[in-house]
Specification:
heterodimer, A: 410 residues, alpha/beta, Urease, subunit C, domain 1, TIM Barrel, eight-stranded mixed sheet, 13 helices, 28% helix, globular, B: 478 residues, 11 helices, 16 strands, 19% strand
């Protein structure tokens, strides 16, 4: 928060606030409304949304009818914790020791090249999550603002991650272990955690203090459990666990969800899907279908988006665009990248364009669900971000026609 | 170093991505010398088109795949061939499709697919794309791994893909032969093979071969080891080809058969490259390695048709244009490995625009999802090119997914553009195909309705799809 402190000093000298006025944008506020309007930002907050706003001191950005959305929030990413997937020394998303207690938070690198890249493509914050783990629970993900500041703005350990599905062993055992761990973490007898750790079950799973504490947060509904699950019968198992242990459950992937749509709808869970993944890539995903996004969303289920590949989390726009092309409501597509993520993961005062929220805002060249569209302005916490990326620097270098070795073109 | 033995074959080596496509195409397609095999090519195509009707598409907006855009045009095809393109065509015998406000493009072509060799579901029992048992497996043919019931074919078809080139994986320096298919699912894979399409040879640079074999403590374990591996193999291939040519010469003079040299499947493939019958599709990411591969191709006098993936192609775009080598590229994949770190989204546009538009850029998928949205990938690449300051029309960008991949697959004489006399491989899009909201409504292959959106009888259903979730239903019929 060093930045904010410096800012206060600056204010005391100038007595003028750092203000931006976005004029005449096609505002998609993330909550289902779309209108032509202005947005006044002062310091790091949205102070007014309306028509014909004026400010003598604000920097004016003319949106000229172009789409304006909340900054996109990736609900699942490896931003800041993975630089190059196939180069393990650049990866910090995989635990060796902890299970559910693993936290990626302290590994976050604001200088990762993925951050300017995703930010310049409209992603202003993300939840960075654990990668592969041999444990049934992979650990916890953390929320980060993608402003690139070493003084990190974020929220540690906002959700727990796990999966039910094909293992090569038995998914029945996965579910049994999950149930036993939930029972343990519920700690109905109210014993000391140390005592829980000494149980044969906990010690045979190498459970640590941090693991039990993390699971306690799940069973006490302090954080959601994001459960990757695809097969229809597994989805029902997940819903049963939710009910039995009273979990705040988010389902991920759910490629066979249309087969158990009513049950999902009745359970009130939200989902994270990759709408473009219609490949029956395993025997758990035989019912995969390009219409998944629309089917879920039109049934009143809140849908968020993941992307097919790492590094390009902004491509959730393309996913949302394809979902809309195949039957999803447009505003649900926008919400799935913004307000839904904020609400479901308890990210306070972000994800929608409304007075009082932090000013994370993107102005687009065109419909943000078109893959060909791109941001013309990205604002995070009221600061206009540079759109430069390593890719833009390389592009400039290699389109520079001077007859020089490229190493001298800079 | 040029070898005199190759002079006789140099006429066959002019296949290129330069503008004089048709000349070079026919040279390749008509290549008479089966000098590498000395026999009729086995496993030839047995493709037969679906039954088709004389069809007239009325009032459609059109990208022809040659770089032109037209509005409100009519296109007539019959017997699987495009017969007439123009305004106000009247034909009383044709089935008429009113396509007002819609868009027509050539059928899309993917030059880099692993459908069939890495089918869905992705399980080890049918994962047959990499014969990763030796760094040189030029003897294997991808088509012998293709599972004809792969449900991914039909998904690609719904994305407008009418032909695709299946390659072996990239574990090996020489991965084996690739083959091109028409996207009409059939039970026998040779019934899908694109008639007259040449084979390719998959070669791979960089991290994959050195990782796969280096991890086993065998060669190659370095990039210099990769280069040595290629050179050793080409030396053997040159020698093999020389012995075959001497045999042909001797038997011609003797007017009778003499004992032929013993065939070697691996060297058959490499010699096929040297004689220009087999096109090199080279997986290669880094600019410096691509430059080495070009030098290698000159040392042994063969032609590289395309560099695949080539995340750094933009760094040597002029060189690629000068050498007539296509870049088969992604719009935006990066960072999954070190050699894919220097991605720029304008890569495709920079390759396309090199030497004042002499470049050959291709949007490829290498992916079962990406192949369904090649038009969207082209849209992203075009947008990045415009932002980088190039003036590129949509009509030109459509070449990245139609005529350019057709050229690189050696099938441009038959498909890849909307021209009279070509195969009626066509897609009618609901909207401009550069929009995410555009859906392929009709996909014609050789004039036949291979897919019509919303019509059940024109949705291919593989054996795999049938009754697998619910015995009385089909997999994707939700």
């Amino acid at each position: 928060m060093k930045r904010l402190i410096l800012f206060v000093v600056f204010l005391s000298f100038n007595l003028t606030a750092n203000s931006i006025l976005i004029k005449s944008g096609q505002i998609h506020d993330g909550q289902g409304n779309s209108f032509i309007g202005d947005i006044l930002i002062t310091d790091n907050k949205i102070v007014e949304v309306g028509k014909f706003l004026n400010s003598s001191s604000a920097k004016v950005i003319e949106a000229r009818g172009k789409p304006v959305t909340p900054g996109l929030i990736s609900p699942i990413s490896n931003l800041g914790v993975v630089e190059i997937n196939a180069l393990d020394v650049t990866n910090d998303d995989e635990p060796d020791f902890f299970g559910p207690g693993f936290s990626v938070f302290n590994a976050f690198n604001p200088h990762s090249t993925l951050i300017p890249w995703n930010r310049s493509n409209g992603v202003t914050s993300s939840i960075s999550t654990p990668g592969y783990s041999s444990h049934i629970f992979k650990g916890m993900g953390s929320f980060f603002l993608l402003d690139g500041n070493l003084d990190i703005t974020g929220d540690p350990d906002v959700a727990m991650y796990s999966r039910i599905g094909a293992t090569g062993g038995s998914r029945a055992e996965t579910i049994q272990i999950m149930e036993s761990l939930f029972e343990l973490a519920k700690n109905k007898d109210g014993v000391e955690i140390e005592e829980l750790l000494e149980t044969t079950f906990a010690s045979s799973l190498d459970m640590q203090l941090q693991d039990i504490e993390a699971l306690s947060r799940v069973v006490n509904k302090e954080i959601p459990l994001v459960l990757e699950v695809n097969r229809a019968s597994d989805i029902l198992q997940a819903l049963r666990l939710k009910k039995e242990f009273d979990l705040d459950l988010v389902l991920m992937s759910v490629e066979e969800a249309p087969l158990v749509l009513d049950q999902i709808q009745a359970s009130g869970v939200s989902v994270i899907i990759d709408p473009m993944d219609n490949i029956p890539d395993s025997f758990d995903e035989l019912a995969s279908n390009i219409k998944l996004g629309g089917i879920l969303s039109n049934a009143g289920i809140r849908v968020m988006f993941s992307t097919q590949r790492s590094h390009n989390y902004h491509l959730m726009r393309q996913g949302a665009g394809n979902a809309v092309a195949h039957g999803m409501n447009y505003s649900a597509g926008i919400a799935g990248m913004t307000s839904s993520v904020a609400e479901i993961f308890n990210i306070q005062n972000r994800g929608s364009i409304k007075e009082g929220n932090f000013a994370d805002i993107v102005i687009w060249s065109d419909d943000p669900l078109e893959p060909s569209a791109y941001p013309t302005s990205v604002i995070i916490n009221g600061d206009e971000m540079s759109l430069a990326t390593r890719a833009s620097r390389l592009t400039e270098r290699y389109t520079d026609k001077r007859d020089l070795p490229s190493a001298y073109k800079h | 170093m040029k070898n005199h033995l190759f002079l006789a074959f140099s006429m066959l080596l002019i296949y290129s991505c330069s503008e004089d496509v048709e000349v070079s195409q026919s040279s390749t397609a008509d290549a008479p010398a089966k000098s590498s095999s000395l026999e009729r090519e086995p496993f030839e195509s047995n493709y037969k088109p679906l039954e088709s009707e004389r069809t007239l598409i009325k009032s459609v907006n059109l990208y022809d795949g040659l770089g032109n855009e037209y509005s409100n045009l009519d296109v007539l095809f019959d017997d699987g061939i495009i017969k007439e393109i123009g305004k106000d065509i009247v034909d009383n015998n044709a089935t008429i499709i009113d396509a007002r406000g819609k868009w027509l493009t050539p059928g899309l072509i993917d030059i880099h697919s692993h459908m069939g060799v890495y089918p869905a579901p992705s399980v080890r029992t049918s994962s047959d794309g990499n014969e990763a048992t030796s760094p040189n497996t030029a003897e294997v043919w991808a088509e012998h791994s293709v599972w004809s019931q792969d449900p991914q074919f039909s998904l690609a078809l719904k994305g407008g893909v009418t032909a695709f080139h299946v390659l072996p994986g990239s574990a090996n320096l020489f991965g084996g032969r690739g083959a091109t298919f028409k996207n009409i699912p059939r039970n026998i894979i040779h019934d899908m093979k694109f008639p007259g399409a040449p084979h390719s040879l998959k070669m791979a640079c960089g991290e994959n071969p050195k990782r796969v074999y280096g991890n086993r403590g065998s060669a190659p374990s370095t990039r210099m080891g990769n280069m040595a591996g290629y050179r050793k193999a080409w030396i053997s291939a040159v020698d093999y080809q020389k012995r075959q040519n001497e045999y042909i010469k001797k038997s011609d003079q003797a007017k009778e058969l003499v004992d032929p040299p013993r065939r070697n499947l691996e060297l058959d493939t490499l010699a096929g490259v040297l004689s220009g019958e087999i096109l090199v599709q080279n997986h290669c990411y880094r600019a410096d390695e691509m430059a080495n591969m070009i030098e290698l191709s000159k040392e042994f006098d063969y032609k590289i048709t395309a560099f695949h993936h080539a995340v750094e192609a933009y760094k040597i775009a002029d060189l690629l244009a000068d050498e007539g080598i296509c870049g088969a590229l992604w719009a935006d994949w990066w960072g999954f490995k070190h050699e894919a770190y220097d991605m720029v989204p304008a890569n495709i546009a920079i390759v396309d625009q090199a030497r004042s538009g002499k470049g050959c850029a291709i949007v490829h998928s290498d992916d079962e999802v990406g192949i369904q949205h090649l038009n969207q990938e082209a849209a992203k690449a075009l947008s990045a090119g415009l932002r980088a300051g190039y003036e590129i029309s949509k009509a030109r960008a459509i070449k990245w997914i139609t005529s350019n991949p057709a050229k690189a697959a050696g099938i441009l004489d038959q498909t890849g553009t909307i021209e009279i006399g070509k195969d009626a491989d066509l897609v009618i899009w609901s909207k401009n195909p550069f929009s995410v909201y555009a859906l392929a409504e009709y996909v014609f292959i050789d004039g036949a309705e291979a897919f019509v959106r919303g019509e059940k009888q024109t949705q291919p259903v593989t054996d795999f799809d049938l009754g697998i979730i619910n015995p009385s239903d089909e997999r994707a019929s939700l």
